Predict the 3D structure of the following.
Amino acid sequence: MSPSITPSSRATEPAAPVSTPASNPASRQPRFVVAPGGTLRGQLRVPGDKSISHRAIMLGAIADGVTEISGFLEGADALATLAAFRAMGVVIDGPDRGRVRVMGAGLEGLRDPGLALAMGNSGTSMRLLSGLLSGQRFATTLTGDASLSRRPMRRVTEPLRAMGAEIETTSAGTAPLVVRPVANLHGIHYRMPVASAQVKSSLLLAGLYATGETCVTEPAPTRDHTERMLTAFGYPLERTPGRVCLHGGGRLRAIPIAVPADISSAAFFLVGASIAPGSELLLQGVGLNPTRIGVINILRAMGADIGVEGLREEGAEPVADLRVRPAPLRGIEIPADQVPLAIDEFPALFIAAACAEGETLLTGAEELRVKESDRIAVMAEGLTALGIRAEVLPDGIRIVGRGQRPDVFTGGRVHSHDDHRIAMSFAMAALRASGPVEIEDCANVDTSFPGFAALAAGAGLGIVEEAA
Ligand code: S3P
């Protein structure tokens, strides 16, 4: 289970300032009200993996043949990708309870959508599509919501331009992106300054359309779903530790794809059942790709009791059931090599840190400042509102845990700042709070975890979703 040890992934691209504006009281959104205490018990399956769902649509769309997807995440982000390919003429049936059939159009089969492609909140859609669209014979415009329109895009547009692509951003290097057709893309060897699977994947997708060889070297391991899926679709890749290369001009052959449950969504329940006395959860069919298991490694290093049962291979990914029981947690210094492997799970991990004995220190995680929100600032704000001492660092956070006492958090109101993972993390905090926890701005929970409140309530969380 332990991932290979590599040097820290300190991001070197200057993080574009992503503001976290106070929520606008005029824009009403659903909110969560979570009663204090409770336990999490039973068996459940969280929705399909977001990263794999995006890629299944993208590769299925440009493959030869029909890709049958099961376990597809019917959340707004993956649906934005699906809608984009429909707009480009790809025939797609579903989704119907996680089943999607993509009639592959082949590498050259996409058509001019004739309108801007709206990516919503989804950074993965925008960054991966910018690469894939660089190789098309038509122009496209990619737009995003307010949060996505603040996120840095030069990390993909600069290397894509080096491949010959023509892409425009705003003067701030943000969306909307305009991608224009060019006569020829050519492969490059790119050493990523930031450990980013989105950048790596974007360049590999452009590389399918490029002459010659495209190679990407990463400063630390990042999720490798694109590489695994390309290989499963029969596309030749050369992989050596820290580096992947491919040649343009090959073909993809459609295959069935079973999407595992998303470890990033399981993370909220791993933390919840670890901190709530009397809990026991079995999380079924969770994807355990070695580049995604930082959350398990970190929680175990803090003392968590997480068992891996029935480890198996499904599609091109390892999958298992996770059994989690409460355990006394201790604060730790989070190992640098685990940071990219847990990059989406830190909001949940900060809740665990507040329930640990002693301090938890995270550094080398400046990438958290340019996610769907500035996750360092926004989590520190919410933790403070719930009575936890948290010190913001330029590249991380120090959290003073309150240990084994039953009431770690006061009740109170927190803002998710439109960030799905912030909302779900604070919902779990209520399990160890002395009063109700109210969470504002929860609409974006649907981007990655539709049905979160109902599933969590079924497991025992006292959560009510109040409509806008
Ligand atoms: C993703 C890669 C990660 C992650 C994001 C999904 C992907 O982003 O945070 O939620 O599917 O490739 P970075 O590539 O920016 O690290």
